[in-house]
Design a protein that fits this description.
By secondary structure, the chain is of the alpha/beta class. Helix content is 35%, strand content 23%. The chain is built from 15 helices and 18 strands. The longest helix is centred in the C-terminal third of the chain and has 17 residues, at 312-328. The radius of gyration is 29 Å and the shape is elongated. The mean pLDDT is 92.
Length: 467
C-alpha cells in the first residue's frame, strides 16, 4: 500500500488487519549520508571518507546502517499504522550494505495483534533495486487509538554547505605546480601569520615573513607554532615591511605579496608608487572569488577593494584583469556581466553607458578572452528565469562568471552580503601588477587566506605557461 502524501492518515488498532502492508521507496544520495552524519555525529570514515572507503571491505562509501532503520520508522510513523504509533521494540539484521545510487524499498507487514495491550507485531523488510534483502527485522508498536488525518507538515529545505570542500576546488587546481615564493608583509597577529603558515603547510607558498621579529614570534607563540625553517626579514615597523616587500618583488626575490596585519592603503601605496617597479600599463584592480552555495558555479566580483570610482578606461582594465584571472582558474571563455541598476542604456546613468561601451570594446577586440554583456541588473546576471521574464536574450544572463560592479562601494556591499548573508566562501587577489597580491580582510579566517594564496600561485604560474 503506497499512501498518497496529500494527507497523512493513520490506521487505528481496530482498522489494522493481519497481512496488511505498507511501503515506501528511497534512492540513496551522497547528501543523505552527509546529512545523517551531521545529524548523528557518526563520522565513521566508511561513510564519509571516499579514500578510506575505497580500501575498506566494501570498496566504496556505504550508508549508515541506521539510515535504513530510519526508513522503517518513517513507514511506521507516517504511513502504517501512522500518526499516534508508539515504538515498543525493534530488531534489525543487516544483510548487505547500501551504496550510493541504490534504491531501497521498505515494506512493513502486520504479523500479529494483541487486543489487551493494542500492541502490533510487524515484519520489516528492506530490499534493493535487485530485489536483494539489505535489512530485515521485526517491530513491535503500540497502535493508535484515535483516528488522525492531517496534511503533511512543511519541512524546511536543507542545504549542506561544506566550506572546506568549496575551497578545495581551488587547491586542487594547483596540483603539480611548484609553490610560489611569497613576501608576507607584517604578519604580526595570529590571523595573518596563521593563514600564511597554513598556506605553506598546504604546499602553496614559501613564505618570507617581513616585520618586527619579536612581534612575529609573539604571534607564532599565540598559535603554538614555531618559525623554524621559515625565513624572517627583520624590519622596524609596518611601513618598512611594505617597502622591503616591494623591493624583494621588484628584484625578483619573491613572486607574490601577501598583506598581513597592516592597513591596505599602507601596502598598496608602496605597490602603486611611481618607482615601485611593480606597475604595468594595466590598471591594478582587486577581484573577490566567491563560492556561493545558491549559485551553480564560482563568481568573480570586481572591483570591490582598490578602485573607488573607476572611469571607462579603468573599467576596461578591470574587466581584462578579471578575465585573465578566470582563465588562470581554468574557466574557459568566462562570461562577464557588467552590472547596473537597469538593463537598458540610460544617458543619465553613467554605469549603463559605460557598460554598453565595454561591450563594444569587447566586440572590437579591445577586451579579449571572455564574453561581455551589459548593462545587466544583478538578478538578470545570475538568474536565467529573471532574464527570461524580462525578455533578455543573452549568453551571459543567468550564467555569469564575472560580475563587474559600477564602483567600489556597490561592489563591497555585494561581496559582503554574499559572504555574511549567503554563506559564500570568499578569497581575494589584486592583479594587474607585475606580481599577484593576496589582499584579505582582517576578519578573514585562515582557509580564506589559504585559498587566496592558491589563486596567487595559479596567477604566478600561469604567466609562465605558453600563450
Amino acid at each position: 500500500m503506497e499512501r498518497a502524501r496529500e494527507f497523512i492518515e493513520n490506521r487505528t488498532f481496530e482498522e489494522i488487519k493481519t497481512g496488511d502492508s505498507a511501503s515506501l521507496q528511497r534512492t540513496l544520495d551522497i547528501k543523505d549520508i552527509q546529512l545523517f552524519a551531521v545529524m548523528s555525529g557518526d563520522i565513521n570514515p566508511a561513510h564519509v571518507d571516499p579514500e578510506y572507503a575505497a580500501s575498506s571491505l566494501f570498496h566504496e562509501v556505504i550508508a549508515h546502517g541506521m539510515w535504513g532503520g530510519a526508513l522503517i520508522s518513517t513507514v511506521l510513523g507516517t504511513i502504517y499504522p501512522g500518526p499516534g504509533t508508539v515504538y515498543i521494540d525493534q530488531t534489525l539484521h543487516f544483510s548487505r550494505p547500501v551504496t550510493i545510487g541504490d534504491t531501497i524499498t521498505v515494506t512493513v507487514t502486520v504479523k500479529e495483534k494483541f487486543e489487551r495491550t493494542r500492541h502490533v507485531i510487524l515484519d520489516c523488510l528492506c530490499v534493493n533495486q535487485e530485489g536483494r534483502t539489505v535489512i530485515r527485522g521485526t517491530a513491535e508498536v503500540l497502535a493508535p487509538a484515535e483516528k488522525v488525518r492531517r496534511r503533511p507538515a512543511r519541512l524546511p529545505e536543507v542545504r549542506l554547505h561544506d566550506t572546506t570542500a568549496r575551497y578545495q576546488r581551488l587547491i586542487d587546481l594547483t596540483k603539480g605546480r611548484p609553490l610560489v615564493t611569497m613576501a608576507v608583509v607584517h604578519p604580526c597577529d595570529r590571523e595573518s601569520l596563521g593563514g600564511a603558515l597554513s598556506a605553506a603547510q598546504a604546499g602553496l607558498i614559501r613564505p618570507v615573513l617581513i616585520g618586527p621579529r619579536r612581534k612575529i614570534e609573539a604571534a607564532a607563540q599565540e598559535l603554538g607554532l614555531g618559525l623554524d625553517g621559515y625565513e624572517v626579514v627583520e624590519v622596524e615597523h609596518s611601513h618598512a615591511a611594505a617597502q622591503r616587500a616591494v623591493e624583494l618583488a621588484r628584484t625578483g626575490q619573491v613572486e607574490a605579496l601577501m598583506k598581513g596585519s597592516l592597513h591596505t592603503e599602507e601596502l598598496m601605496a608602496e605597490v602603486v608608487a611611481s618607482g615601485s617597479g611593480l606597475r604595468t600599463a594595466r590598471r591594478i584592480s582587486h577581484v573577490f572569488y566567491m563560492d556561493v552555495p545558491a549559485y551553480h558555479k564560482p563568481l568573480l566580483i570586481t572591483d570591490a577593494a582598490v578602485n573607488v570610482e573607476p572611469d571607462l578606461e579603468a573599467k576596461a582594465d578591470i574587466v581584462q584583469n578579471a578575465i585573465d584571472l578566470a582563465l588562470a582558474l581554468s574557466i574557459p571563455e568566462p562570461k562577464v556581466a557588467v552590472l547596473a541598476a537597469v538593463e537598458t542604456v540610460n544617458p543619465r546613468m553613467r554605469s549603463t553607458v559605460e557598460a554598453a561601451a565595454l561591450c563594444k570594446m569587447a566586440e572590437r577586440g579591445q577586451i579579449r578572452g571572455g564574453v561581455v554583456d551589459g548593462p545587466l541588473a544583478l538578478d538578470n546576471a545570475v538568474s536565467i528565469v529573471a532574464a527570461k521574464t524580462k525578455g533578455i536574450a543573452s549568453a551571459v544572463a543567468g550564467q555569469a562568471d564575472i560580475l563587474v560592479v559600477p564602483d567600489l562601494e556597490s561592489g563591497n556591499i555585494v561581496a559582503k552580503q554574499l559572504e555574511y548573508l549567503a554563506d559564500a566562501a570568499s578569497a581575494g587577489i589584486v592583479l594587474g601588477g607585475r606580481v599577484p597580491i593576496v589582499l584579505t580582510s582582517r576578519a578573514d579566517p585562515a582557509p580564506a587566506r589559504v585559498a587566496s594564496c592558491a589563486i596567487a600561485l595559479l596567477l604566478a604560474r600561469n604567466r609562465r605557461l605558453p600563450a
